Amino acid sequence: MKKLKRSQRLVDMTHFLLEKPHELLPLSLFADRYGSAKSSISEDLAIIKEVFEGEGMGELQTLAGAAGGVKFIPRMPADEASSFIAELCQMLEQSDRILPGGYLYMSDLLGQPAIMEKAGKLIATAFYGVEIDAVMTVETKGIPLAYATAGQLGLPVILVRRDHKVTEGSAVSINYVSGSHKSIHTMSLSRRALREKSKVLIVDDFMKMGGTIRGMVDLLGEFGAQVAGVGVLVESEVADVKDRLLHDYVSLVSLGEVDARERIISAHPGNYFAGRAQ
Amino acid sequence: MKKLKRSQRLVDMTHFLLEKPHELLPLSLFADRYGSAKSSISEDLAIIKEVFEGEGMGELQTLAGAAGGVKFIPRMPADEASSFIAELCQMLEQSDRILPGGYLYMSDLLGQPAIMEKAGKLIATAFYGVEIDAVMTVETKGIPLAYATAGQLGLPVILVRRDHKVTEGSAVSINYVSGSHKSIHTMSLSRRALREKSKVLIVDDFMKMGGTIRGMVDLLGEFGAQVAGVGVLVESEVADVKDRLLHDYVSLVSLGEVDARERIISAHPGNYFAGRAQ
After folding, report:
1. Which residues pair with B177 in a beta bridge?
2. Could you give the domains of chain B?
3. What rounded mean pLDDT belongs to chain A?
4. Given CB atoms, is A120 within the 8 Å cutoff of chain B?
5. For testing the chain B interface, which of A2, A5, A10 should be mutated: the one with the most B CBs within 10 Å?
6. pLDDT score of B276 more than 50
7. What keywords are assigned to this protein (chains A, B) (predicted)?
């Protein structure tokens, strides 16, 4: 790489750090990359740190010593988080989302990578400081959110399938009760997918009674793995919370009554700001 | 936002541009954000442009006039592309991927957001300059690649389902022949998901005879939409290419013989560098 001026180095380093969240990058990597002294690199990083942390875009952690370096932990600023959640609520309240049976069409929202990216950053922010080894979801609609979250955390995604596929090798299957309809379903996870004692963040697009997520919790039990947390994009309010199969989770949006006759949907912020996210 | 120095502005602007690929950002947005003159912003952008384009990280397009602004088009530098493809081949050649029936376990690769991010950037780079309105894939394993590609292109993802779900509203279903086994399957797409005359980039994780992708092409036909291109992570070589149901595509990796007895897999670069990607 040709010798860059400080202004140019700052652009390149910002790009480099943003592409590798949660990765420990030794100062020597930058020193070699730019043919600069480590002291100059430290000054550059101090400027980047000031901007990132000043704007609430994330933390730049510096670890001293031979094994040291710098690590970027992305976060979403609180004001951006609340305006994003408000925007989500507004989009969900569009009356043409109501489908027969009172279901809500959400595929257009879930289909926008920029929205998923922000939602994933928000869930990653909510679990800041929690020790996590992997992000888990069950196919299909939670997948983009799980990848966005895992990308922000620098972690792999473990994908639970609805049935056992030949391309997954030997697998563990469990049955679970879907709370809303009390119907029995199966989910299955490749034996290779998860190491024992892993700490796993469960992510999904939608939760009502929590039966599907409860199924993933049980599946983790089968692998001797642990739940590090649960994050959902939308929780649907239930008549009696005691009926819910799961109580400890972070939600971005809470969906109230869907009045299919009057075509009114009410959505308001989930427990993101109320709960452990603080 | 408090007044920033040039060095600080460069960090913030780089972050801002990287988060919004393909979005036209007016200079006044930056001028307001930093309380700076447009002339200073133009100078900042010139520095960023020089670094981005010098390193092959993408293009910074400047559009003059009242409706003008700046737009970041991400690209992957050619040297990074070839080392990434070589790395993919190496990972795919690990003999413990072989499953009964000669299938290959790929879920660990597909489960790494950083790998999907790079693969998506590569496919986006391959279709640089092609007019595209949306990225389409069929559940399940192609989803992360489709989102990564669409994210780089600033486009929505259209997700085809294997069966018709209540949460999708009215849908169009078609039958298709899966080439490898000549078996009949169904795929289905919500009527709301796709506008007529849309130009669609089809993305998938794996292609052998091309039957699944052919199904998506047929589905596009049902919606009066057009194929803008096809990108796959891995193509599997076939004995006679004439049997393939699809000939115009971009692949990152080409999978040769899988010798289940000797436990040997051969993978080499796909047509990314050979074909239209140039």
Report:
1. B184
2. 6-74 (1.10.10.10), 78-269 (3.40.50.2020)
3. 94
4. no
5. A10
6. no
7. DNA-binding, Transcription, Transcription regulation
Strand partners, A7: none
- The H or E element that residue B266 is part of is strand B264-269
pLDDT-based confidence at residue B278 (cuts at 50, 70, 90): very low
Query: In this predicted model, what pLDDT tens digit does every residue of B9-24 receive, in sequence order?
Result: 999 999 999 999 999 9
Is the pLDDT at B181 greater than 80? The verdict is no
Cis preceding linkage at B167, omega within 30 = no
CB contact under 8 A, A2 and B55: no
**Res A275 pLDDT > 70:** no
Question: In chain B, pLDDT over 90 holds for what percent of residues?
Answer: 85
Contact A107 B8 (CB under 8 A): no
Nearest CA in chain A to B53: A12
Distance in angstroms (rounded) separating the CA atoms of residues A104 and A278: 30
Say which amino acid occupies A203: V
Average pLDDT on B237-244 reads 88
Q: What is the DSSP letter of A98?
A: B
DSSP A168: G
Give the chain A residue nearest B20 (alpha carbons): A114
A158 pLDDT band, cuts 50/70/90, is very high
Residues B115 and B109: beta-carbon distance below 8 Å:
yes
Length of chain A equals 278
Cβ neighbours of residue B14 closer than 8 Å, sequence gap 6 or more: A10, A11, A14, A15, A18, B48
Tell me whether B260 touches chain A (CB under 8 Å).
no
DSSP A208-231: SS-HHHHHHHHHHHHTT-EEEEEE
Handedness of CA A93, A95, A100, A102 (dihedral sign): positive
Bridge-based pairing of strands B157-160 and A264-269 is: unpaired
Q: Per-residue pLDDT averaged across B110-123, rounded?
A: 98
Q: Do B51 and A2 touch (CB under 8 A)?
A: no
Is the pLDDT reported for residue B208 higher than 60? yes
Beta partners for B269?
B253
